[in-house]
Design goal:
Elements (H helix, E strand, L loop, with lengths): L1 E6 L2 E7 L9 H40 L2 E7 L5 E3 L2 H4 L11 H5 L4 H15 L6 E8 L5 E13 L5 E10 L1 H60 L2 H32 L2 H6 L1 H15 L3 E7 L7 H20 L5 E9 L2 E11 L8 H14 L5 E6 L3 E10 L4
Parallel strand pairs: 8-9
Antiparallel strand pairs: 1-2, 3-4, 3-7, 5-6, 6-7, 9-10, 10-12, 11-12
Helix pairs in contact: 5-6, 8-9, 9-10
Length: 403
């Protein structure tokens, strides 16, 4: 005879019996069924226990590799149960901790209020879960960084929190890496600022060389050429007049070109008339030299106390207009220089291809990075907004200090 063993409405085994001298009765079948149900219950329990044990072992290995520990706190007593690693990660014995306050006593003074407030907010229902980062003092006296996440997992008959369960992760290495990256970024910013100063000094040196040496020498050549031409016999003057005219014209265009180069290298108007006038002048010159229509919008009269900041904003304008002309394929651009609520804002709006900050392309990304570094020393900010298909607005804002 064979009897199926059922579990959850399906057959999980079949039991066969034989060698009984008499026929099997219903009582025999019932007894065998009850016996095999009990046996299968034991088998299932053993299988479940094995799965739980295997899962617990994998979980323990994962938590050990990740410096992760679990904890529970009972309320209102504040008694705690926890993975031993929560104590051993700090160099203590698990027996050193029995209460929530045993852990909070090790918090860094600057983090204690934040950590306790996070727990209080969660227990009061003001936060979905308890989540905070803090430093704790180890037995050796140094501090380790931890990320702690927990939630209410049990309530009493009146609905008040009775059990909080969470996990804590040692993030000291991550914080050290973040601090090192922050220091590297600051060093790079300092280097960029020094390079910018060196570049402006080099520009000034080249500009004065062009102005004091080359341009003056060419002007002297032109004067000598004009003087010599008037001393030639009339017949000779008639013969060389076309050549002299070409030479004079070439000298004039070369001197004009040198003056433009000098002005681009050292914006003298910026020092003499201030940033608003310098921006309007450069906008006019840019419109004449390109096919981009430049319109001056709102330009507030202001005078910055820091000449280096004024120069930085002027360079931002130059760099942005050049980018709009070469890479953005714009035909119109509007410039505003505004002073509102103690903040100076340089705003440029063009009708070129839309450029989003997170998809700006390599060249545009470099331009934005350069602009951000230019205004960073003064606490400036840079924002970019684009339309759905065309048009981009660039805003550069810096705190204003009156001169």
């Amino acid at each position: 005879a064979s009897i199926p063993v059922l579990s959850g409405g399906r057959i999980v085994a079949v039991v066969g019996v034989a060698n009984k001298e008499a026929d099997y009765t219903d009582t025999d079948v019932l007894q065998l069924t009850l016996l095999m149900d009990s046996v299968w219950g034991v088998v299932e329990r053993k299988l479940t226990e094995e799965k739980v044990r295997s899962f617990a072992e994998r979980l323990e290995r994962a938590m050990s590799v990740g410096n992760l520990a679990w904890w529970q706190m009972r309320l209102p007593s504040g008694e705690v149960e926890f993975d031993d690693r929560k104590a051993t990660m700090l160099g203590y014995a698990p027996a050193d901790f029995a209460h929530y306050s045993d852990f909070t006593a090790l918090l860094h003074p600057d983090d204690r209020e934040n950590a306790t407030r996070a727990m209080r907010d969660h227990l009061d229902g003001n936060a979905e879960r308890y989540e905070v980062e803090y430093r704790m003092r180890s037995r050796s006296g140094d501090y380790h960084w931890f990320r702690d996440v927990g939630s209410v997992t049990g309530r009493d008959a009146e609905g008040r929190p009775a059990l909080v369960t969470g996990v804590v992760l040692d993030i000291t290495d991550l914080k050290d890496a973040e601090e090192q990256l922050s220091r590297s970024n600051e060093e790079l910013r300092d280097l960029a600022a020094r390079l910018d100063v060196a570049r402006e000094e080099e520009r000034a040196s080249v500009a004065w060389e062009l102005h004091d040496e080359v341009a003056q020498a060419l002007s002297a050549v032109k004067m000598d050429l004009t003087s010599c031409s008037t001393r030639l016999p009339v017949a000779v003057q008639e013969q060389v007049r076309p050549a002299l005219a070409r030479m004079t014209g070439l000298l004039d265009s070369t001197i004009a070109r040198l003056r433009r180069l000098y002005t681009d290298l050292v914006p003298v108007m910026l020092e003499d008339l201030g940033l608003p006038a310098a921006i309007e002048w450069h906008a006019q010159q840019f419109a004449l030299q390109s096919d981009v229509a430049v319109r001056m919008g709102r330009v507030d009269p202001l005078r910055l106390s820091d000449e280096r900041l004024a120069l930085a904003l002027y360079r931002v304008l130059q760099e942005t207009l050049e980018h709009v002309y070469r890479d953005h394929r714009a035909t119109e651009v509007t410039i505003d220089l505004m002073l509102d609520d103690g903040v100076v804002t340089l705003r440029l709006v063009d009708n070129g291809e839309a450029v989003l900050p997170d998809d700006s392309g390599f060249r545009c990304g470099l331009v934005l990075a350069s602009i951000r570094e230019r205004v960073h020393p003064w606490g400036g900010s840079v924002s970019v907004q684009s339309g759905s298909d065309r048009g981009t607005e660039l805003r550069v804002a810096v705190p204003f200090v009156r001169k």
